[in-house]
């Protein structure tokens, strides 16, 4: 309440100045007042980093409060508690679910300084002009709306973006090469009886169903019309295969949070499972061999972005734009890329990475020196190459995006049954 | 059943008419005295439950719920074989956990009440039982995971002793680990009420039993057990409701592989299916209430409180 009053009072005298200020880089005219601003950001653990909040305080002067939740809780909060946050750091498939609630406001593209440098995946869906668009909820398909206030998405680029893309990656299966001892090259291996009681998938329906689809397709059991938008029959067939595997004891456990996946892998409970890139990194940093195995069918990809609460206005809104522009200006991108993610504006991140780091993480070159994470853990020795290779190789072979389907509610109920089966 | 407890006074039957004669003033005062608790109970217990019942008839879309009066949620719930399996699993957890906590709880309470002579020692040992409760539930539960894991302490020790060749897979992420955690977490809820009722047993009754030639076992069966029934019943209600309503223990200790009703509800909530979750909650609530009603028919707890 007090914040709202503050905004209304200041918007008259400060509005014009603030509008001018956002167009200019620091130092800002409103530098004094901005110190009192607190923006509340929440999202999944991947990019809700306290280091980012500290750097924001340093560079921009205002306070950013971070809350990290799991994907389901993030969706729930964005959909049901619009006043509990100012900035939502969510994935694109969550955006598809949440946008129609009207809890987020569209962003003016003309206020985004680095818009032109954002990779094509988030604009027209194509990494290079001749690449094919993968199945699923591709970010560009829910990235724009025709006009402010619209609850449906636009088919092409407009001046109004739903989320400003910040982070994305290509996911695949993680394996323990020391415990498997042979090459793995297909998604079908997840249900190979050889790994009975030593496999795992993640218990987040929107992501898990895509991993399942990759597996079923790789096994040759099911041919999907569109994995990202399955029919009821396809959903039933997919769950039938996985329920049978579950009853046969294929899975050791399902995981829901990042830390669980790390512990399962590091403790040797599981040798093959769905995994996220930094989780591999976390296992490796404990000195345990772990590979983010590229598979011949391609990757399951995901992308995240920053959305603004519809209740955000006045000075806070300006501060949020300031934050977004800062986010894309390179420091965060470099930080995230040194963890194995990709930045939406890779070229600005280059300035915040050493030549060795850029070569290793982005270009897929051999490391010329030790590669360390932003927090100082050793991730790779000189001579090692990133699993999967360069940015173009990895993002170029995306088979599908995390998705929300038309039959989502049916899928969710089936998922619930699968977990309980 | 009640002949052994015959020395306790019969229920007060004369109190009610006496109070009625005091007139409106006292009546009003009584109402006023009861008002704060009533307001709290209505606001924080009755109203939310009514809300849950109402929402259980509503419909849901991806991201919102809309008022309606439809039986879809119940239809889906009762139409799915998974529901029956999950309820069955929930009863199984409750029953096994109840049996184990009862055995352990009764033994511990018996030891504290009858074998430990000095009261200081009794209190000291009793407090000792509560020490694990100084940390959170979750921590006590999760600390089992590294212990029971494939390469955990338990498996390694057994292998070192040469008792097993390969690690025991069923130690973790199984019904075993779930029930182990339940027993670990909830035994104290059995110990406390049973200990409490045992402490109230008149020691002269035990002496009388012995003087009449009863063996230790006979005293236990015919004197102590009937007299501790109210404690056992309170403990039973605690344990059964806790286990039936739990979801986090099942989730962590089974590695999400097993399900009980609580998990069904929590999955629904996580997926924004509030009406469906509400319907499941209503059915669970009804089930638990029925169980408690049945339990209360066996023993009159009020008499003991």
UniProtKB/TrEMBL annotation, chain A:
Region forming the signal peptide: 1-31
Gene3D superfamilies membership: Periplasmic binding protein-like II (3.40.190.10)
Keywords attached to this entry: Signal
InterPro entries, per the entry: SBP, TAT_signal, TAT_signal_bac_arc
Keyword Signal listed: yes
Domain of life according to the entry: Bacteria
PANTHER family the UniProt entry points to: SPERMIDINE/PUTRESCINE-BINDING PERIPLASMIC PROTEIN, SPERMIDINE_PUTRESCINE-BINDING PERIPLASMIC PROTEIN
Name the UniProt record assigns to this protein: Bacterial extracellular solute-binding protein
Species the sequence originates in: Pseudooceanicola marinus
TrEMBL record, chain B:
Keyword set, alphabetical order: Cell membrane, Membrane, Transmembrane, Transmembrane helix, Transport
Membrane-protein topology: Multi-pass membrane protein
InterPro entries hit by this protein: MetI-like (IPR000515), MetI-like_sf (IPR035906)
Principal place of residence: membrane
A Pfam cross-reference name: BPD_transp_1
ABC transmembrane type-1 domain segment(s): 87-295
Any one biological process term the GO annotation gives: transmembrane transport
Gene Ontology cellular component list: plasma membrane
Transmembrane regions: 37-60, 93-113, 125-145, 170-195, 231-254, 274-299
Localization: Cell membrane
UniProt record similarity statement: Belongs to the binding-protein-dependent transport system permease family. CysTW subfamily.
Protein name in UniProt: Spermidine/putrescine transport system permease protein PotB
UniProt source species: Pseudooceanicola marinus
């Amino acid at each position: 309440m007090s914040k709202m009053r503050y905004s209304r009072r200041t918007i008259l005298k400060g509005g014009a100045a603030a509008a001018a200020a956002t167009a200019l880089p620091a130092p800002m005219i409103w530098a004094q007042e901005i110190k009192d601003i607190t923006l509340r950001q929440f999202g999944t653990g991947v990019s809700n980093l306290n280091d980012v909040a500290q750097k924001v305080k340093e560079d921009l002067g205002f306070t950013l409060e971070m809350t990290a939740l799991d994907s389901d809780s993030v969706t729930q909060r964005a959909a049901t508690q619009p006043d509990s946050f100012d900035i939502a750091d969510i994935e694109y498939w969550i955006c598809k679910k949440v946008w129609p609630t009207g809890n987020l406001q569209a962003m003016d593209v003309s206020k985004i300084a680095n818009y032109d440098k954002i990779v094509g995946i988030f604009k027209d869906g194509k990494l290079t002009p001749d690449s094919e668009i993968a199945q699923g909820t591709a970010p560009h398909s829910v990235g724009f709306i025709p006009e402010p206030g619209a609850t449906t998405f636009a088919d092409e680029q407009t001046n109004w973006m739903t989320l400003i893309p910040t982070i994305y990656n290509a996911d695949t299966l993680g394996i323990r090469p020391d415990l498997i001892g042979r090459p793995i090259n297909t998604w079908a291996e997840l249900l190979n009886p050889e790994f009975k009681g030593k496999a795992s998938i993640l218990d987040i329906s929107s992501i898990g169903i895509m991993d399942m689809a990759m597996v079923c397709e790789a096994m040759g059991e099911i041919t999907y019309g569109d994995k990202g938008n399955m029919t009821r029959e396809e959903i039933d067939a997919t769950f039938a295969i996985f329920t049978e595997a579950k009853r046969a004891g294929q899975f050791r456990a399902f995981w829901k949070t990042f830390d669980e996946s790390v512990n399962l892998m590091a403790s040797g409970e599981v040798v093959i499972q769905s995994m996220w890139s930094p989780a591999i990194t976390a296992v490796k940093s404990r000195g345990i061999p772990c590979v983010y195995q590229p598979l011949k069918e391609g990757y399951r990809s995901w992308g995240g972005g920053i959305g603004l609460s519809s209740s955000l206005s006045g000075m806070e809104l300006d501060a949020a734009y300031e934050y977004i522009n800062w986010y894309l200006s390179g420091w965060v991108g470099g930080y995230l890329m040194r963890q194995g993610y990709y930045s939406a504006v890779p070229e600005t991140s280059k300035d915040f990475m050493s030549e060795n780091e850029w070569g290793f993480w982005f270009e897929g070159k051999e490391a010329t020196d030790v590669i360390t994470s932003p927090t100082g853990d050793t991730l790779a020795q000189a001579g090692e190459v990133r699993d999967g290779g360069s940015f173009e190789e990895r993002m170029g072979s995306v088979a599908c995006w995390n998705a929300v389907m038309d039959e989502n509610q049916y899928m969710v109920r089936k998922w619930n049954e699968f977990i309980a089966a | 059943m009640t002949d052994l407890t015959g020395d306790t006074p019969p229920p007060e039957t004369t109190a009610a008419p006496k109070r009625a004669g005091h007139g409106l003033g006292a009546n009003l005062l009584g109402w006023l005295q009861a008002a704060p608790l009533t307001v709290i109970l209505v606001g924080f217990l009755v109203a939310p439950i009514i809300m849950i019942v109402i929402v259980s008839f509503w419909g849901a879309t991806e991201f919102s719920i809309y008022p309606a009066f439809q039986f879809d949620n119940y239809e889906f719930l009762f139409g799915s074989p998974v529901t029956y399996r999950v309820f069955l699993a929930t009863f199984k957890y409750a029953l096994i956990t109840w049996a184990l906590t009862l055995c352990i709880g009764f033994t511990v309470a018996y030891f504290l009440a009858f074998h430990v002579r000095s009261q200081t020692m009794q209190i000291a040992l009793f407090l000792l039982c509560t020490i694990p409760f100084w940390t959170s539930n979750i921590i006590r539960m999760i600390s089992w995971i590294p212990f029971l894991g494939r390469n955990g302490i338990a498996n390694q020790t057994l292998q070192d002793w040469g008792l097993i060749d390969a690690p025991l897979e069923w130690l973790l992420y199984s019904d075993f680990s779930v029930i182990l955690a339940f027993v670990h977490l909830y035994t104290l809820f059995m110990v406390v009420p049973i200990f409490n009722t045992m402490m109230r047993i008149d020691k002269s009754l035990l002496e009388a039993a012995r003087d009449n030639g009863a063996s230790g076992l006979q005293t236990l069966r015919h004197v102590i057990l009937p007299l501790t029934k109210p404690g056992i019943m309170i403990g039973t209600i605690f344990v059964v409701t806790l286990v039936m309503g739990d979801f986090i223990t099942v989730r962590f200790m089974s590695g999400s592989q097993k399900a009980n009703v609580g998990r069904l509800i929590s999955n629904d909530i996580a997926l924004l299916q509030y009406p469906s979750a509400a319907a499941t909650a209503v059915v669970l609530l009804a089930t638990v209430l029925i169980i408690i009603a049945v339990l209360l028919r066996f023993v009159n707890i009020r008499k003991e409180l």
